[in-house]
Every structure is written in C-alpha cells, then in structure tokens.
C-alpha cells in the first residue's frame, strides 16, 4: 500500500494584493475629504456673506435723489422751529445707521452740528474743532464758540478770532444744508462730513 505524500512547500504562497479593496479605500477617503470640505466651504461663505452684503449695499455717490426726498448723503437733523429765531446757534446730535462687517445699528450718534438761523436760511457747522478734534461749545454770554481743549475761539460765523495766533489751522467746518427740503417741509437735512484735524485745508475723512 503506497502512501501519497504531498511534498512540503518550500515557501509560503503570497496572496494576490487586494487591489479592489485598496481602490475602494481610496475612494472612501476621497469622499470623506469631500464631505468635510463642502460644509467647511459653506461655513466660510456664510461667515463672509455680511461683507458681500455690505459691499452690495454701499450707496452710489452718483445716485440721483428721488423727487421730493432728501439729497443723497444728507441726514435729518432737526425741524426748523427747533432752532432759535434770534440767530443763536444750537447744537444737535447727528444720528445715522452704522454698519460693520456683521451688524447693523440704527440711530447711532456719529457726531454733532451747530445750526443757526440766518433769515430764511440755516447755517450748519460741524461741532468738531479743526485743531485736535475736540467738541467746541457755544458760549452765549460771549457770543462765540470755544474749544475746551486748547482754547481755540471762533465767532458766531465760525471764523477764528485771531487767525495769525489761533491754534486752529482753519475756521470751523461749514456743512451743506438741503435748501429744497428746508423751504418745502421746514426740515433741516445736513450733509454731515468729517475732516482731518490739524490741517489747513479741509481733507475729508473717507
């Protein structure tokens, strides 16, 4: 009786590399990265969207004002009857909508102006001293504007009392008033602009 003896293998057989399994793992990894990037990118877009909205909502400086409405860039300050008829200046706050990258705030105080009646007209001056940016005060007893910071003095017309020796490099900054709305509705709308302090010429702060 013969015994069938299988010869011993001299080396272990090497299995064929699982190519299909490796391919599926690679596809799964790519999909996982893709699924991670999509919500991440969406989050970035949402995060930056207020910046895009702000850019879209910027007013066009060339915009033509609507008929019967205020001119572009003008803000409502007061009604005509709130200003003393005798020509005494009165200070009013300037309030406007303030927008940063992600928030919008209504009726934020951004400055102040002095309004003075001159016949049928209204004269508007920025309340900011051109010297160093402090707020000037009108002293009714002396009929002049005075800056409490460095003693700059201006007449009721906004002119420096002594241009040669005044610490202020220029007169008070006069602002435009919407004459149409003043005449038609007795409303005072002012183009409120801010200028660099310490400069001889008026340089608008953008």
Description:
This protein is an alpha+beta fold and 206 residues long. The protein folds into two domains: 21-57; 75-190, Rieske [2Fe-2S] iron-sulphur domain (Rieske Iron-sulfur Protein), CATH 2.102.10.10. Helix content is 22%, strand content 25%. The chain has helices at residues 19-56, 179-185; strands spanning 75-79, 90-99, 104-118, 121-126, 137-139, 144-146, 153-155, 174-175, 187-190. The strands form three sheets. It has a four-stranded antiparallel β-sheet, with no helix packed on it. Strands 5-6-7 form a three-stranded antiparallel β-sheet, with no helix packed on it. A two-stranded antiparallel sheet has the order 1-9. A hairpin with a 4-residue loop joins β5 and β6.
SSE arrangement:
Layout: H1 19-56, E1 75-79, E2 90-99, E3 104-118, E4 121-126, E5 137-139, E6 144-146, E7 153-155, E8 174-175, H2 179-185, E9 187-190
Antiparallel strand pairs: 1-9, 2-3, 3-4, 4-8, 5-6, 6-7
């Amino acid at each position: 009786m013969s015994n069938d003896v299988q010869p011993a293998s001299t080396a272990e057989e090497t299995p064929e590399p699982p190519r299909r399994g490796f391919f599926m793992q690679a596809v799964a990894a790519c999909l996982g990265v893709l699924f991670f990037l999509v919500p991440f990118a969406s989050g970035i877009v949402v995060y930056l969207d207020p910046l895009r909205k702000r850019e879209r909502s910027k007013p066009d400086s060339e915009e033509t004002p609507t008929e019967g409405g205020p001119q572009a860039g003008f803000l409502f300050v007061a009604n005509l009857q709130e200003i003393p008829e005798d020509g005494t200046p009165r200070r009013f706050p300037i309030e406007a909508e303030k927008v940063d990258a992600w928030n919008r705030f209504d009726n934020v105080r951004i400055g102040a102006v002095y309004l003075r009646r001159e016949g049928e007209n209204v004269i508007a001056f920025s309340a900011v001293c051109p010297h160093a940016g402090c707020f000037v005060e009108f002293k009714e007893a002396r009929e002049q504007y005075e800056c409490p910071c460095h003693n700059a003095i201006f007449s009721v017309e906004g002119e420096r009392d002594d241009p040669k020796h005044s610490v202020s490099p220029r007169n008070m900054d006069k602002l435009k008033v919407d004459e149409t709305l003043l005449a038609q509705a007795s409303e005072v709308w002012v183009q409120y602009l801010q200028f660099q302090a310490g400069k001889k010429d008026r340089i608008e702060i953008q």
